[in-house]
Amino acid sequence: MRLTFTIQRFNPEVDSTPQLQEIRLDVGRGMTVLDALIRIKQECDGSLALRYSCRSAICGSCAMTINGSEKLACRTSLRKELERHGHIRVAPLRNLPVIKDLVVDMASFWNKVLDVHPWLTASREPQQRYGPKAQLTILPKDSQFHNVDACIMCGACVAACTVYEVSKGFAGPAALAKADRFLSDPRESHSAKRARLSELQGEHGIWDCTRCNLCVEVCPKDVKPMEAIVRLRRASLERELTTTGGARHILGFTDLIEQQGRLNEAIMPLKVVGFKPRGLLRILPLGIKMLLKGKIPNPFGHALPGLSHLQALIRRARHAMPPG
Q1: Which ranges of the chain have pLDDT less than 50?
Q2: DSSP category for residue 232
Q3: Could you report the per-residue pLDDT of 258-279, keeping only the tens digit for each?
Q4: Residue 257: C-alpha distances to residues 111, 261, 274, 315, 323 (Å)
Q5: Other C-beta atoms within 10 Å of 91: how many?
Q6: Nearest one of 158, 180, 179 to 170, comparing CA atoms
Q7: CATH class, 2-104 region
Q8: Cβ neighbours of residue 227 under 8 Å, at least 6 residues apart?
Q9: What is the pTM of this model?
Q10: Are 306 and 261 in contact (CB under 8 A)?
């Protein structure tokens, strides 16, 4: 079968903008996108730049944008892509600088991972629990990494991240998932875990994630980075790291639901910004618009029916939660 491949070409040394190139190639049954690209480079255009190594979905080198989605070229079937989209279009990973054609500069990606200190701060607790020879031992009952340790650092999640697209300072899904992996490690001390979480509270940290779920959709190893970020948020709240706007939003939302049985959109902004004059002035225009749109509940209205049952359910769920 003869297919037409549309490949985005760009050499920043000579090109001002990326260009699309169409190349036709005879392909066989069972071929992957990477197989085809290697043949294109060998048989059609030797100047095509791409990155690959293991060809077995282990190294993550061949991550690229295939028909608009971040994928590993070595595990992407040509037949399935053709059946789903009717064409084959290949481009480099988004949100990362292009070195040439399908090769991107991963330096910013690696720097984000280094920023979360992807190593252990040793603790004496394992020695006290299992004896002096168990310093580096993790028992199955004490470890639950939620498959985060399966990450191959391909960069697909960062390329798909909508937050990283508009804010390059954001730590990114891969780095935050890596932080969660070490937070779950029983060999790290409680003080070190708190320090790790404290560093993630500020701007570009865990509270910037919009939970769009795209990182989960594109991850080739089912790491689920967004779920790791949610675990980091929960751990922060359990340790009373609640000064950021994101943490105050969660706590304010749950307090209002428990107190009133519904979201009070007039009080919710106050829960986030507090009663500081600067914050109040900033949300005052929003409050006026909400009033005019009828978004502010009547403070003298009747309580919602069944509120006591909801409150009892919330209290029961809270008591059933394991200690943080």
Answers
A1: 324
A2: H
A3: 888 888 888 888 888 887 788 8
A4: 40, 4, 18, 12, 22
A5: 20
A6: 158
A7: alpha beta
A8: 146, 216
A9: 0.86
A10: yes
Q: Which residues, listed in sequence order, are joined to residue 79 by a DSSP beta bridge?
A: none
- Write out the DSSP string of 63-123: EEEETTEEEEGGG-BHHHHHHHHSSEEEEPPTTS-EEETTEE--HHHHHHHHHT--S--B-
Do the bridges between strand 88-91 and strand 2-9 make them parallel or antiparallel, or are there none, so unpaired?
parallel
* Structure tokens belonging to residue 214: 């795209």
Residue type at 264 in one-letter notation: N
Compute the distance between CA of residue 294 and CA of residue 289 in angstroms, rounded to an integer: 9
Q: What is the DSSP letter of 297?
A: P
Amino acid occupying residue 97 = P
Which of 137, 119, 118, 121 shows the shortest CA–CA distance to 129? 137
Q: 45: how many CB neighbours lie within 10 A of its CB?
A: 13
User: What CATH number labels 107-238?
Assistant: 1.10.1060.10
CB neighbourhood size of 17 (10 A): 5
Q: Which residue has the tokens 């809270």?
A: 318
DSSP secondary structure string for all residues of 9-22: E--TTT-SS-EEEE
